[in-house]
Amino acid sequence: MKLKDHFGLMATYNQWMNEKIYEAAGRLSAADLAKDRRAFFGSLLGTLNHLVVADILWLKRFAEHPACSISLREVVDLPQPTGLDQIVFDDLERLAERRVWLDQKIIGWIAGLSDEDLDIILTYRNSKGVTFHRRYSSLILHFFNHQTHHRGQASTLLSQAGKDIGVTDLLALIPDEAHV
């Protein structure tokens, strides 16, 4: 399996897990969604907003790659987030709509990459203005790892609120293959 195929699996996993998280979150009241549960971003709503903010920031950076300017053009047109703790939407329905839209953009972006695209060095600035030069494939790996990290927190917050999202392992999406 090529690296690009692994990223395709991660994009599918990202979408699948977000569907599970948002479905479970939809069973909570607005008060439970916004309740400060002492997580990094306070509440479940704060955590889900952080994931949207971080994905927008990274996708805007990824769009600087010449091969991605078209597939991520609509993301580039989104307003620049003002902080990692920004509440983009304070209601779950609108946040979920943005999440679904972003997940579709992520799947399309990854599908459009070639193995050669993954080897370039991307120059970008973080939110503090510090410039970095890093391998595109390593940044994509970070992107998906970051999502998994905070979805794990969201899963814990949902569990604390009495909602079980079920199986969360990537293994559930890895196809079984014939033994050679």
Give your account of this protein's structure.
This protein is mainly α. It has one domain: Four Helix Bundle (Hemerythrin (Met), subunit A) (Up-down Bundle), CATH 1.20.120. The protein is 53% helix and 6% strand. It contains 6 helices and 2 strands, in the order H-H-H-H-H-E-E-H. Strand 1 and strand 2 form a beta hairpin. It is globular. The mean pLDDT is 95.
Can I get a quick summary?
Helix content is 53%, strand content 6%. The protein is mainly alpha-helical. It has a two-stranded antiparallel ribbon.
SSE blueprint:
Blueprint (H helix, E strand, L loop, with lengths): L2 H23 L4 H5 L9 H19 L10 H4 L15 H20 L9 E5 L5 E5 H25 L20
Antiparallel strand pairs: 1-2
Helix pairs in contact: 1-5, 1-6, 3-5, 3-6
Protein traits:
single chain; 180 residues; mainly alpha; Four Helix Bundle (Hemerythrin (Met), subunit A); 2 strands; 6% strand
Helix content: 40-55%
Order of helices and strands: HHHHHEEH
CATH class: Mainly Alpha
Whole-number count of domains:
1
Fill in the CATH topology. Four Helix Bundle (Hemerythrin (Met), subunit A)
| CATH superfamily heading | dinb family like domain
The biggest beta sheet is recorded as: 2 strands, antiparallel
Q: In angstroms, what is the radius of gyration?
A: 17 Å
Number of strands: 2
